[in-house]
Amino acid sequence: MAPASWKALFEPAGPGAHAVEVRVFVRGGHPLLVIPTGPRFPAGTAFALYAPQTLVARIANLAWRWSLPVGFAPGSRRDSVQIDPASPFVRYLASVSCANSATQASSQLPQIVILAGNPYAPAPRYLVQVFNPAREPIAVVKTGVGPAAAQLISREADFLEAAAGRTEHSLLAVPRVLGRFSHDHLCAFTMQFVRGASPRPAQAGGIAPVLLSWLDSGRKLRVGEFAAWQRLAKASGADPLFKRLDAALGPVEVHPALFHGDFVPWNIKVSPADGAWTVLDWERGEREGPPGWDWFHYVIQTAMLVEKKTGPPLLRAAREMLASSPFCSYISNTGLAGQEHEWLLAYLLYCRDVLRPKELAPGVESLLAELTRSS
């Protein structure tokens, strides 16, 4: 399968198209960030969409920021793209760029930076950071090319709009949809640009208030009624461990939670002004999901992907999470107190058999085996 190109966002280009020079920053041999060479964006905002986690990635990001203003950056290349101001998507971006401005959106090319997704994904998606005429970032447009991407983009926008409409209690960290776009092969929605970086280990205390706000304390569901549990039953139904967990947990009534499904530091922004969290990338979002699994995901995924933990250190991180005061306080509000160990086993089964992350498979399998032996 040929990789998707970010240039597809601007196709087809009519006779009035302009050639825009860009610098493409590459990771793993594929485009990561696309930054126009014309407007001199401040380096900090030009790279605001990229959330490096490992030490090597953070060092590379710093090198890019330092070298971009002088017109050279290691790990990047020059390129160009034809952008037509008359195309519907470009006009939409221009309208976002000139919101609350006297400038006529249709008369200029929008000032943007693009964060490219996996070019080999069945439904490639992109984040487009939009700047106002003063070169200040004001919005982020999430978009995708083709029917599969359009379905994911539309589902995420629908979910966020439904979450914003919930009035029974305040939901922390959930962004609002500011606008939507659909035309031919493109679908998109707009969110406000959020300043900040991913939470560092010392900021993990922000997990509890966010996830507590996502609990629906006014109602309960049996674990077996969750769509996530039903997906797990379909994938792991023949596994003896699942059969044991289903018998013990399936009938238990718990408070459902807003479920992100990929709650990890690189999908979170922490405001430098007040420390407020904003959680992004809700493609897996569900209104009624298993409480606590987002917490498990945050800790386990970070330990394996960022901290590179395996074996005993990974097992220790999992046990420390279960024993921590913030987690114990949270789980006591869900209806699962006393069943934390089994609940973690269920999440690990879900990770192994439903999410099926290839790069994490050995670590998940090993942790699952160790925790099963001690249960």
Give a brief rundown of this model.
The protein is of the alpha+beta class. It is 36% helix and 21% strand.
Q: What does this 3D model show about the protein?
A:
The protein is of the alpha+beta class and 375 residues long. It folds into two domains: 6-192, Phosphorylase Kinase, domain 1, CATH 3.30.200; 201-373, Aminoglycoside 3'-phosphotransferase, Chain: A, domain 2. It is built from twelve helices and 14 strands. The chain has helices at residues 43-46, 55-67, 88-97, 147-164, 207-214, 227-236, 240-249, 293-306, 311-323, 325-331, 340-355, 361-373, and strands at 18-27, 30-36, 76-83, 111-116, 125-131, 137-145, 177-183, 186-192, 221-222, 253-254, 257-259, 268-270, 277-279, 286-289. An eight-stranded antiparallel sheet has the order 3-1-2-4-5-6-8-7, sandwiched between helices. Strands 9-10 form a two-stranded antiparallel ribbon. A two-stranded antiparallel sheet has the order 11-14. A hairpin with a 5-residue loop joins strand 5 (125-131) and strand 6. The protein is globular, with a radius of gyration of 22 Å. It starts with 17 loop residues before the first strand and ends with a helix. 36% of the residues are buried. The mean pLDDT is 91.
